[in-house]
DUF1460 domain-containing protein (Pantoea alhagi), 260 residues
Amino acid sequence: MKLIASILLLFSLSACTTSSHPVIDKQTSERLDEILQQQVIPAHNKPLGERIANISAAFLGTPYQADTLTGSDNVPEQLVVNFNGVDCFTLLDYVAALSHASSRDDFITQLRLTRYHQGQVSFVQRKHFFSDWFSLAPLNARDITDKLNTPTVKVTKQLNLKADGGKYLPGVPVTPRIINYIPANNINKGTLKALQTGDYVGIYSPLAGLDVSHTGIIIKKGSQVWLRNASSLKKNMKVVDTPLLSYIKTRPGIVVARPR
């Protein structure tokens, strides 16, 4: 019986964790090389926000596609690289990793560090929540929500715990975390002025167990502030630039993280 239990334990662990060797198709591989040559390497010495703007622009028009990553509590996690379709979170993954990369191999390393806590390719270690980006090492960004000269609201969340007691992500532990957000009605000219191109934005979710419901990247063009995001709206279904104010006027509020 002990032997059987040990075998089952090993199987369970192997189902959650795998090597960091990337899974990448030919089309994505070619597009990665193109972005590296046209956007990443030439902009190596430019400010981080400008690099993020240029790199993310290369994804404009990319189809929206959910569930492109491989891994669950009983399926081995894989380091997936898929530029053929992105959701709001994988878009940020790829852009953040590319913004710190100096080569193809370095991008793979940066993606692993961006997507996973301690760089460990594991479903449990994946940074599933937006606030993981500024809470779990290595940090992808720092939370600046309460530093934008705008009144915030502080809420204690039990991330991954549904109101009915279930979990959004089986196998992932519940994590208590304090979330600061700026209510949409509090956003003013001062807020917009304090935002910077390249800032990461999460749309606050009032649902139990969630910190945000959507993510995007701040792009400032003159006096206009845009949210560059992988939109699942029927009229879009691709990566687009959306005027930030018009987008958030019917949303609860925002959480803002500045890239590191």
